[in-house]
Amino acid sequence: MQSIVFTVTNDISYDQRMHRICSSLAAKGFLVRIIGVNRPSSIPLPIPPLYQASYQQQRLNCFFQKGPLFYIEFNTKLFIVLCSLSYDIACAIDLDTILPVWWATWFRGKKRVYDAHEYFTEMKEVRSRHMVQKVWKWIERIAVPHFKQGYTVNQHLAGLFYDQLQIKFEVIRNLPSIQNQPNISHTKTTQKGDVLAEYPINNPQNIYNFTSNKLVQLINNQFKSKFIIYQGAVNHGRGFEQLIPAMQWVNAPLLIVGQGNFLNQTTALIQEYGLDQKVFIHPPIPPAELKMLTPLAHIGITIFEAEGVNQFYSLANRFFDYMAAGIPQVCVNYPMYAEIVEANPFALLINNIEPSTIATALNNLLSDDVLYNRLQQECSKATKVLNWENESNQLIAFYSRL
């Protein structure tokens, strides 16, 4: 069986998508390694696999943690590693690891794959800085055409890649696994556990264990009744400028679980609107704990700004994670979400992300039990079809053909 190395610039501790991909391939006999970055907050390796099939995990130590110097340092070290490792296929996850994968596989005569999880050059943090976007577009233009095999997360993005770069990518969506989904319960606990990743938890009494004392305290105090959850990156373009002021009029607290390049601004917005006792931010938690936390929430939220190709044609991981957790959500009415909800009506779509629109939709779900129960039932139906156990067959087939 072939060996595959995946390369990412993030902390693999919290990357559910890559855990699913690596675990699924390892379970089918592929020899898998993932290389990421060692961050100050990183959980010790190895992270337990999803399907009990082990794969190698490696982090590169970098003196610089962000900015151009980080990318130069990380890509240089990654190139050196890829020139010395034994593998058959190297897969670059997004543009920020594409150059060392291209150069190393060319130098060694290995197969290469491009995994376009984002339309990288159209992310707001890139698009809003002209010179930064210009550099990444140059990298995209010279590097991506050398990757004749690849995949992305939805058909709209695949079409954009073909239109602009004449590269035909397959579609492999990041759907949640239902194999290890915990039973939905609103039991709370003050016990601490040591859960590190998305794997089966023997918990017959439905007691929920979290390693974070802060999270335990929030659940047992501020979130005794209904609460709203946002899980994922706190980045530019994710609608926090609208969501935070909207919470002034929402009849439930909000828990944000994540971090990112808009975290400081989000914290400032919470203070500006006097919402520090209504909107709470918690750092990322391990995937297994997130799977336990999300079903405790009453509503999820998936919003993006409409400006920018990457946002408008997005298909966020949390959109499906809320579905698998059995909680209805408020979601933007953009093409991919509208297409899925039309066939599987498990979310309440909104046509814009004005604060008043967001607040009205959230309060509607908080007060309308008939609507809420109908959407919740649709979550259960949709999860039987939209799950990683089905979608991973396309992933396995893709790599088996290489």
Describe this structure in words.
With 402 residues, the protein is an alpha/beta fold. It has 16 helices and 13 strands. The chain has helices spanning 16-27, 67-84, 98-108, 124-127, 130-143, 155-165, 213-220, 240-246, 263-272, 287-293, 309-312, 317-325, 335-343, 355-367, 369-383, 388-401; strands at residues 3-7, 31-38, 56-61, 89-93, 111-116, 150-152, 170-171, 228-231, 254-257, 279-282, 299-302, 329-332, 347-350. The strands form two sheets. A seven-stranded parallel sheet has the order 3-2-1-4-5-6-7, with helices on both faces. α12 packs across α15. The longest helix has 18 residues, at 67-84.
Describe the protein's topology.
Elements: E1 3-7, H1 16-27, E2 31-38, E3 56-61, H2 67-84, E4 89-93, H3 98-108, E5 111-116, H4 124-127, H5 130-143, E6 150-152, H6 155-165, E7 170-171, H7 213-220, E8 228-231, H8 240-246, E9 254-257, H9 263-272, E10 279-282, H10 287-293, E11 299-302, H11 309-312, H12 317-325, E12 329-332, H13 335-343, E13 347-350, H14 355-367, H15 369-383, H16 388-401
Parallel strand pairs: 1-2, 1-4, 2-3, 4-5, 5-6, 6-7, 8-9, 8-11, 9-10, 11-12, 12-13
Helix pairs in contact: 1-16, 2-3, 8-14, 12-15
